[in-house]
Write a structure and sequence with these properties.
With about 2000 residues, the chain is mostly beta strands. It has 22 helices and 104 strands. It is globular, with a radius of gyration of 45 Å.
Length: about 2000
């Protein structure tokens, strides 16, 4: 806190106004007095404070206190504001009531993709989808498994918004995660308020928002710790808002929201460790321009427990718990920008630097800054604006006022804009017209800290000092060019100097170039352009037609990257050799060594380069012309390239290697030339490389300035292209060149480069900084012009926001990276000096009509017709006698005497007198669009200076006017002259024509709320001067009655149709019990649904029924259900417009005649509402008399059949006669006239169970018994699918609709309503052959019996059991039950056992449905899990679900049977054609018949295909029983329509189910018992492994494919590999097998004997391959049980690498070559694995590359690392990793190099080979070859250490668990330890002390041990808190042993005696091996697949190296030119 000087008091009193609150609170909206809706809560208290302090107690410097005093004086001199944290209720609304989706419970769940309506910009990349994850993050990509990121810090490999990244688990109901995408105005408005408070200058209006909320979520707890699980839960929220160009993100943490601050890693290995949550943002991996990928920018808010705890206590918006960030922009946005609103809790962040390229990571650190003034005078001085600022000695460490780049403000810097006005002076009596102008652009850079005087710096030269006679051209002072005349030719970042012969332009300090074009020092540059021409490859010419070229140059180190896109493949490969295309940019922006300059300083941006390339051999010639066309509006160099000629053929897939070279440039006036010969090689993987050369000649012409006495350009300079990389990406068709360039005087520049890192290009300056060399190796990083920072981290300066731009009046400032742009406003253009914007005189172009005059105005002009003419000035016609239009009357009424009133708006009319679509106000400059009546169109008004809308494009076909618009227009045209009456209330309508909720009377000032009909809402009217009522308060949802009423009142024209009935609703929106028709006078009672109650309708004048009495409502009839279902089919519960609504009579029955209210068609229906054939009539046609005799119903047939059974025609005595109602339906209660029994029946007359009563007993109320509704029949399904095929519920014209009877069966005679054809159908609706008749022809009598249908499968099955040998079913046999159609009843029961079960349509038992006798049965009517759709069903559904979701009219729809198979006979419903098809639905030739023609019998005419194995199998089983049905209890295989085995097979008797392959063989592990859920057999099956194939073959005989007794069946593990130990189930013998399943000799044991330990290796006939050894090693490393996401090499049966390799069970896969090396560009994250060619090639494919040593570049220290089949060399430059000079030291095909060590005495490298099981060495001399030292009794040699002093080497074997030693030549081998080791890994030796250290990553008890080098004094150094100690090294400087732990993620050190333990870094990924050198730790990392550097002092990551070939790195060591101290 602020403390005063000794003996002084400071009185802080509240001022009159609360200034602090004014700065913290957003402005309240107009009219909302005191409202803070949508803003977080604040509490302010007025305090009077008096403080006395002794400064000596604080010990702080005086000036620090003075500085804070100045900073806090404003806030402390006003009311002190105490801002409270937000509460949960202050979060944005969330939960399912707000439309949120809920993430499923779990530990690692990811939401389905939220598809965004428009892209969301994150950094500067657009994303169209977002995913919400359990672990506290939102990502723009689908997430990987959590183990790949949840325990790691930022950055991540994928885009992340992380409000709380931690291992969260919602399993077991522990919290919920909600998310939604919303456009709700209340959410968007609140978000906009938050942004405008945090970024006051932001022009941001969000269009969409994503709200994600984690409510009461818990941390993940291991199962072993479940008993000790905490109850701590967290609640937090993030909101992402964005518009077309920008995105912002809010993090919200309520005051009780964070109760845990980190989570334990899943692989903690019994170590008590907790990782704090990570909060921030990460862009994810990005392409490193051309060559590879690297981490993108990231931003960290909190990464330690302290800062996480404070998330809810502080914020960057002035409100604790609320954090706001600017996270994205469409153009060039690389850094997250936090809000910084002042207040007592706002803390400025300290900037941290992300490790990787272009990465800047500000991290908030909540430090307490205590300042103290030493005297009151200094307090006053600091607070005075006139007092000078002072800096203390440690001001660099503290926040300072002096530094311009780090301002200290607790309030945001005041940013004021004065938008230029647009005064428009219009001559009296004239109108104006504003025309759109194209914006003019001015490019400028920010002014320097001490800029030269405005207007340019002009230097005058005394003519007496200059000799005018140059010997070339004679000049005179009269005609010379001067700065005064031609200064505009200079760059705006240059000054102009006059000389005797002319002027020259010179770039200002901080810029470079030729003066005409200047670029900022140190900033990276971009180039864009087009490539064209014709390139001939061989004899094939290929045209390049303006394809894109882009280049990016890192000026600070001379790297130039060029990419040419859309290059056709043939020429793409060949042009890899044409690197000179990209070399131009390397020369222009090369890294300058002393006494040299890059090309751009000479040429600027305008030049022409002509180059000729001649290739040898082949003599192909190619010309290259590149033209620099200046700088574009983004200050990017624009270069066009033309290429013509021939190039050598390069085979596809080849690699082109360009050798580094040096080239000398000769410089002459206006031209530079060079000539050089280059070498390159072309290599294919299977062929030797071929060498080529080309000769390059080039000249570069440019415009120079020779007037001045500039320092002369050197005559020669040398370009050194150190690295040239070329590549063609076939898939993307992109050609890439990457070149590293340095320019220097001619000669050897290597010594110069060693002088300073600036010249070597290995400095650590930011890419937007300039490296300035100092003495020796020292240098300084200085941010480029337009950037700010310390040089290592540079940030773009927003010149527009900071007021540093030079934009003048009438221009707009647009910020760009490193610069800004001034854009002239509409109506202005660049002035003569190209720096200011001046008005365009549009009249100069004569835009007006010949009969009009033009008057120029500022930013606009006017055209006015001359007297005697009329028009708009652009079209003028002679005056005529036509009537004036409304526009003209309107215009003329405002012009008194031809002169308009001052400031009045005068409408503009066109030549026809109509309103011009765009109207502008001549005084204010506002413009807007109008309709044909001159009414302003909503949201079209634009302010002055902005481009008006194109109103012509807005003229869409106008929708009918709404009620509000009609209401408004009646008022607006109610006066005689067509204008509103003065004082009249004019309703306000929104853009959709609906009444605005708040209506105000402009004359009286009264305001009120209205409903959707414009009716005033009671109690909402407010008088003028008072705040209006909040009309946004949510109204209750409309009721059914209100929807019904409003739908009638807002019909197509906005008014109710004349004579329409309008329902009446009460105040609660319910139907009034009594309804009346306003036109007819009829009244009736309705129920609560608005349905008329039968018998209550009265005519006009009649006495009404009392509707208040409640009648017991009868159950709805079928007609009423039908009617109501149509009336409530739309989302708002109202009838769909144009839908057919059935008409029911007062009893709820169908009215016999039905009519469609929209189409006018009428037809007759039966009692079930089914249309009666032949009764449909069109609109206007006479209707059919529907009262004519209808066909008898089922009840009537039944009744009449009984009544006429006696001889006298009367009912037989005692016979039951059914009773039918007037419609022929069964009366629900039936009674027997003779017996007196009564019972209830269904609509089929079937007695309902338990309803029969004896005579005299009370009857059951049959109206209350409702049987479960039967499922729809085939006919009803068929009919309904057709009847609901159009969007409005109408039958599509021309579509055939089947007719069903009251039982849902097909009516025997079917007719097509459109064509008039009729035909007979069978019970399945199939047309009976020969029955079709045309329209008007007599119909066939369909009641005649059709030939009896063939028996169904069920009937055959049933009859086969019931008709056994003796004609009776066998005792105890199961007899299937079939329905009347011969189909299996859904429930089947065994008559003898009492078991029941459900079956499918094939009679197969449904798994899990069998119940025992007496047990409750399963409801078999419920739908069983659907089988996959068949081909027929897919075909059918694709037609029925076309683009509009319905079949096209007249389309053919395939017919499928109940099993989804094609019916043998197919017919077209519209045309009547029929034909036969095969099982695939293909038409059989010669079977098509026309309508009415006899049909082909499709059941017999098809040649029968041969039976399949499944059908043979099934036939054999069925043949074993009688009549082709199986013996009871036998398993019968199920085959599909094509005779193939159905994937899921079930045993109908036992209930077991299992999956089978295509041969019917059971798939292992898929069998499920009865009642269990069967497996999903449709899931794709991975290709079988050799073990699985052998097992499956063994399980079946060759002929019968059934298991054979006594056959050996191999056992396979979960991955399908052979289990190491195999046993014979019958004999009991056991033996060991290798990875191919081959028995290992000598391992077989007899039954009962102890089996051999198969984990120990044994000699085999074939040595294990590299793939197999690697796989075994990793399995061991993973503890024998790798996780699903961990990588294991996949090997072929012969041990070679499988061509496709994947991470575990994921789809993250890639292709490899024969050696297991990844093939570039084949990695895939998709669900589809990449298609890879087999890598196994025939023997002797190519000679193995000889493993020669290629020594690294001469450097003092080199890191050597092992990477699979090679050893790499990575030089160190100081402590930095010199990636540019990295190379492969030794390539070892077929090896797996793990351990690595270096002998500094003999300059040799040693390594262990896991594949060959050897220890080897090689001299690090050029051409040296490896030698093997030890090759016996090694299994898994890993860690290796070398004692150069004692000439010994030590290694560990992780398989045999031993530590051994030997001399350096392999002799004197001995075992040091072979006990108490489980998984030894790393080993190091300390020569100076003779000590040995090693790690053992035993997962049960990991430890680090030590002993002497001779094996004495073994002891444990550390075992507590150790997880997976992979990496080990020794710190000679501290004498401590240090290790990297992949379990705890820590790098720790400890003294050998166990003391002094400390953590260096706690955020490692997966370290494997480590070495220490020069205060840095370097370790190989398996997560990053690279080398990471950590500074021991700062504990921070300082560097990273990722090899181009990404795979695991193993051992790492240091190689030096001499032995380091302590190594001997």
């Amino acid at each position: 806190m602020l403390l005063p000087a000794p003996g002084r008091s400071v009185s802080l009193s509240p001022p009159v106004t609360n200034q602090c609150a004014a700065k913290l609170l957003p402005p309240a909206p107009a009219g909302a007095a005191g409202s803070r809706r949508g803003s977080p809560p604040f509490r302010c208290s007025a305090l009077r404070v008096r403080l006395f302090v002794l400064p000596e107690l604080l010990g702080l410097p005086m000036d620090r206190g003075a500085m804070l005093t100045a900073a806090l004086l404003c806030c402390w001199s006003c009311t002190v504001c105490v801002v409270t944290a937000i509460r949960r209720t202050d979060l944005f609304p969330f939960g399912d009531l707000n439309g949120d989706l809920i993430l499923p419970e779990g530990d690692d769940e990811t939401s389905r993709a939220l598809t965004l309506p428009r892209p969301f910009y994150f950094f500067d990349s657009p994303f169209s989808q977002l995913y919400v994850a359990t672990n506290g993050i939102v990502s723009a990509q689908d997430l990987p498994m959590e183990k790949q990121y949840v325990d790691d810090g930022l950055p991540t490999d994928f885009p992340v918004v992380a409000p709380f990244l931690a291992d969260i688990d919602t399993s077991g109901g522990r919290g919920n995660i909600y998310y939604r995408l919303t456009e709700t105005p209340s959410v968007l408005n609140r978000f906009a308020q938050e942004v405008h408070r945090g970024f006051p200058d932001a022009k941001f209006t969000p269009t969409h928002a994503v709200v994600a909320t984690w409510e009461n979520v818990a941390a993940y707890e291991e199962q072993a710790r479940a008993t000790g699980a905490t109850n701590k839960v967290n609640t937090f929220q993030t909101v992402i808002g964005y518009d077309e160009t920008d995105s912002y993100v809010l993090f919200l943490y309520p005051e009780d929201g964070l109760n845990f601050f980190g989570t334990r890693p899943k692989e903690s290995y019994n170590v008590e460790i907790e990782f704090p949550a990570r909060v921030g943002f990460s862009r994810g991996e990005v392409s490193f321009f051309i060559i590879s990928k690297t981490d993108g920018p990231f931003y960290s808010v909190a990464q330690d427990e302290n800062s996480v705890k404070r998330l809810s206590q502080v914020g960057n918006t002035g409100v604790p718990g609320v954090w706001l960030f600017h996270t994205g922009k469409r153009f060039s946005f690389q850094e997250i920008i936090p809000a910084s609103i002042g207040g007592l809790l706002a803390v400025p962040p300290t900037a941290g630097y992300g490790l990787y390229l272009d990465t800047t990571t500000p991290e908030y650190e909540f430090d307490d800054y205590n300042f103290e003034p030493e005297s009151q005078e200094e307090v006053d001085a600091a607070g005075s604006p006139d007092s000078p600022n002072t800096r203390s000695e440690d001001s660099d460490r503290q926040l300072s006022y002096n530094r311009e780049d780090v301002p200290l403000t607790l309030e945001p810097v005041e940013r004021q804009y004065a938008p230029p006005g647009f005064p428009l002076t219009v001559p009296e009596g004239r109108t104006q017209r504003v025309e759109e102008q194209q914006p003019q652009v001015v490019d400028v850079y920010p002014p320097l800290r001490n800029p030269p005087p405005s207007g340019g710096h002009v230097v005058s030269v005394d003519e007496e000092d200059v000799d005018f006679d140059t010997g070339v051209i004679q000049y005179t002072t009269e005609n010379k060019e001067t700065c005064a005349r031609f200064q505009q030719q200079c760059s705006q970042n240059a000054f102009c100097s006059d000389y005797a012969t002319g002027f020259c332009c010179h770039c200002r300090p901080g810029f470079y170039g030729n003066g005409r074009h200047c670029l900022p020092d140190g900033a990276p540059q971009r180039v864009s352009g087009k490539v064209s021409g014709t390139v001939t490859v061989g004899s094939t010419p290929v045209e390049l037609n303006n394809i894109d070229l882009h280049a990016y140059i890192v000026v600070g180190d001379g790297r130039a990257y060029t990419a040419i896109s859309e290059v056709p493949e043939p020429v793409g490969w060949a042009m890899m050799s044409v690197s000179p295309v990209g070399e131009l940019f390397g020369w222009l922006f090369a890294l300058e060594l002393p006494n040299s300059q890059a090309g751009f300083k000479i040429t600027g941006a305008e030049f022409s380069r002509h180059a000729e390339v001649v290739f040898s051999p082949g003599n192909q010639r190619l010309s290259i012309t590149q033209t620099g066309r200046g700088l574009d509006e983004h200050n990017h160099l624009s270069v066009d390239t033309v290429i013509n000629g021939n190039v050598p053929f390069v085979p596809p897939g080849a690699e082109v290697t360009m050798k580094p070279f040096k080239e000398t440039y000769q410089y002459y006036p206006s031209v530079a030339t060079s000539s050089s010969v280059r070498e390159f090689s072309v290599g294919l993987p299977e062929k030797a490389s071929e060498s080529y050369t080309f000769h390059l000649k080039q000249n570069i012409t440019y415009r120079d300035c020779r007037h001045g006495n500039q320092a002369a350009t050197p005559e020669t300079l040398q370009i050194n292209m150190e690295r040239v990389f070329v590549m063609y990406v076939k898939e993307e068709r992109i050609l890439r060149y990457a070149i590293t360039n340095k320019i220097s005087p001619v000669g050897d520049s290597s010594e110069v480069e060693l002088l300073n890192p600036c010249y070597a290009g290995n400095h650590d300056c930011d890419t937007t900084a300039q490296c300035i060399p100092l003495e020796g190796q020292a240098f300084r990083c200085q941010c480029a012009t337009g950037y700010r920072g310390d040089g290592q981290n540079c940030y773009d300066i927003d010149e527009c926001a900071e007021g540093l731009s030079s934009c003048g009046d009438y221009s707009q400032c647009l910020n760009l990276p490193g610069t800004h742009r001034c854009q002239c406003q509409s109506g202005f253009e660049l002035g003569y000096e190209s720096r200011t914007c001046v008005d365009i005189d549009e009249c100069m172009s004569s835009p007006c009509h010949i009969s009009a005059i033009c008057v120029n105005a500022q930013a606009s002009f006017q055209c006015q017709c001359l007297p005697g003419f009329y028009g708009d000035g652009f079209n003028c016609s002679p005056q005529a006698d036509r009537l004036r239009s409304q526009c003209e009357q309107h215009r003329d009424s405002l012009q008194s005497g031809g002169q308009p009133s001052v400031g009045a708006y005068i409408p503009q009319c066109d030549s026809d007198g109509q309103y011009r679509p765009r109207q502008c106000h001549g005084s204010t400059g506002h413009c807007w669009c109008v309709d044909s009546r001159g009414q302003e169109k909503p949201e079209t008004r634009t302010p002055p200076g902005t481009a008006p809308l194109a109103c012509d494009s807005l003229d869409k076909p106008e929708r009918p006017k709404t009620q509000c618009e009609r209401h408004r227009d009646r008022i607006q045209t109610s006066s005689p002259d067509g204008f509103p009456l003065a004082g009249a209330y004019v309703p306000q309508c929104d853009e959709n024509g609906q009444y605005r909720q708040l209506q105000c009377h402009s004359s009286t000032g009264y305001c009120w709320c209205v409903d959707s009909l414009g009716e005033e809402r009671p109690g909402t009217r407010t008088p003028p001067g008072t705040p209006p009522t909040d009309c946004d308060k949510p109204e209750r949802p409309k009721t059914h009655c209100e929807h019904h009423r409003d739908s009638v009142q807002t019909s197509s024209d906005g008014f109710p149709p004349p004579g329409a009935y309008i329902p009446q609703c009460d105040q609660n929106g319910l139907y009034l019990p009594e309804q009346c028709h306003g036109s007819t006078g009829h009244c009736w009672c309705v129920n609560s649904s608005g349905q008329e109650r039968a018998g209550t309708r009265t005519g006009p004048g009649s006495s009404r029924v009392d509707c208040r009495t409640d009648e017991p409502e009868r159950p709805k009839t079928h007609c009423e259900h039908h009617r109501d279902s149509v009336q409530t089919t739309s989302p708002d519960g109202l009838p769909l417009v144009g839908a057919y609504v059935p008409q029911c009579d007062e009893n709820g029955l169908y009215v016999p005649e039905q009519c469609h209210g929209s189409t006018g068609y009428c037809w007759c229906v039966d009692s079930r509402g089914q249309e009666r054939a032949g009764t449909r009539t069109g609109p206007g046609s006479p209707s059919v008399d529907c009262r004519t005799e209808r066909p008898k119903t089922h009840c009537e047939h039944h009744r009449d059949g009984v009544q006429t059974t006696g001889p006298d025609g009367l009912p037989l005595l005692g016979v039951y006669v059914p009773q039918c109602d007037e419609n022929g339906l069964y009366i629900s209660q039936q009674c027997h006239g003779s017996t007196g029994h009564c019972w209830c029946v269904d609509d089929r007359g079937q007695e309902l169970p338990e309803t029969r009563t004896a005579p005299g007993a009370p009857h059951v109320d049959c109206s209350r018994t409702e049987e479960p509704e039967r499922s729809k029949t085939h006919c009803e399904h068929h009919r309904d699918s057709v009847q609901t095929t159009s969007p409005d519920g109408l039958t599509l014209l021309g579509v055939y609709v089947p007719q069903c009877d009251e039982n849902g069966l097909y009516v025997p005679q079917q007719c097509h309503g459109s064509t008039g054809y009729c035909w007979c159908v069978d019970s399945r609706g199939q047309e009976r052959a020969g029955t079709r008749t045309g329209p008007g022809l007599p119909h066939v009598d369909c009641r005649t019996e059709e030939p009896e249908r063939r028996k169904t499968h069920c009937e055959h099955h049933r009859d086969s059991v019931q008709t056994s040998s003796d004609g009776f079913p066998p005792p105890g046999a199961y007899i299937p039950q079939c329905d009347q159609n011969g189909l299996y009843l859904p429930e089947q029961c065994h008559g003898s056992t009492g078991h029941c079960w459900c079956v499918n349509s094939s009679g197969q038992e449904r798994a899990g449905t069998r119940t025992g006798p007496g047990s409750p049965r399963v409801d078999c009517r419920t739908d069983e899990p659907e089988r996959p759709k068949t081909h027929c069903e897919h075909h059918r559904d694709s037609v029925q679900t076309s683009s509009d979701g319905f079949p096209p009219p007249g389309a053919y729809i395939p017919q499928c049977d109940q099993n989804g198979l094609y019916l043998p006979e197919q017919c077209h419903g519209s045309t009547g054609h029929c034909w036969c098809v095969n099982s695939s639905g293909q038409e059989r030739a010669g079977t098509r018949t026309g309508p009415g023609s006899p049909r082909v019998d499709c059941r017999t005419d098809q040649p029968e295909r041969p039976k399949t194995p499944c059908e043979h199998h099934k036939e054999r089983v069925q043949a074993s029983g009688s009549r082709e049905y199986p013996v009871a209890g036998a398993y019968v295989p199920q085959c599909d329509a094509d005779g193939q085995y159905i994937p899921l097979q079930c045993h109908s008797s036992t209930g077991y189910c299992w999956c089978v392959n295509e041969d019917g063989q059971e798939r292992a592990g898929t069998r499920t018992p009865p009642g269990a859920q069967p497996r999903d057999c449709v899931k794709p099956v991975a290709p079988k492994t050799p073990c699985e194939e052998q097992r499956d073959r063994a399980q079946a005989s060759i002929q019968e494919r059934y298991p054979v007794a006594g056959v050996f069946v191999p056992r396979c593990d979960a991955q399908g590999q052979f289990v190491p130990q195999q046993c014979h189930g019958s004999t009991g013998h056991c033996w060991c097998v290798d990875s191919s399943g081959q028995e290992r000799a000598g391992t077989r044991t007899a039954p009962g004997a102890s089996p051999v330990d198969c984990r120990k290796p044994a000699p085999t006939n074939r040595a294990e391959s590299v793939c197999e050894r690697w796989r075994a090693s990793l399995i061991e490393h993973y503890g024998g049980n790798p996780d699903p996401q961990q990588y294991l090499p996949q090997c072929e049966p012969d041990g070679e690498f499988s061509p496709v390799q994947c991470y575990g069970e994921s789809t993250y896969c890639w292709c490899v070559d024969q050696e297991g090396r990844e093939v570039d560009g084949t990695r895939s994250h998709d669900a589809v694995k990449p298609a890879c060619l087999p890598s196994v090639a025939p023997p002797i494919v190519r000679p193995i590359t000889r493993p020669d040593v290629t020594p690294p570049a001469k450097t003092a220290v080199t890191l050597l690392y092992a990477q699979g089949q090679k050893i790499g060399a990575l030089p160190l430059n100081g402590s930095r990793l010199d990636a540019e000079r990295s190379k492969t030291l030794l390539t070892l095909h077929g090896s797996i190099v793990v351990g690595i060590a270096y002998d500094c005495k003999e300059n040799k490298v040693y390594w262990t080979d896991l594949s060959a099981r050897t220890i080897n060495r090689a001299s690090m001399a050029s051409g040296a070859e490896p030698e093997t030292l030890i090759n016996t009794n090694l299994v898994s040699p890993e860690g290796l250490a070398l004692d150069a002093k004692r000439r010994l080497m030590f290694w560990v074997d992780s398989n045999t668990d031993v530590i051994e030693s030997a001399s350096l030549d392999g002799s004197r081998r001995r075992t040091l330890f072979d006990s108490d080791l489980v998984n030894p890994r790393a080993i190091v030796v300390v020569s100076s002390t003779g000590s040995l250290y090693w790690t053992d990553w035993n997962r049960e008890a990991p430890k680090i041990e030590t002993s002497t080098v001779d094996g004495q004094g073994r002891r444990v150094v550390v075992s507590d808190g150790v997880g997976l100690p992979n990496a080990l090294t020794y710190d000679l400087s501290s004498g401590q042993i240090c290790w990297g732990d992949a379990g705890t993620k820590r790098l720790e050190c400890i003294s050998p005696n166990g003391s002094g333990r400390r953590v260096i870094n706690s955020d490692l990924n997966y370290p494997f091996s480590m070495v220490y050198h020069s205060n840095h730790f370097y370790f190989s990392d398996w997560r990053r697949d690279g080398v990471i550097a950590v500074d021991k002092v700062s504990s921070k990551f300082t560097d990273e190296y990722l090899p181009e070939q990404r795979s695991h790195l193993y051992g790492i060591t240091i190689a030096t030119t001499h032995c380091l101290p302590g190594s001997l």
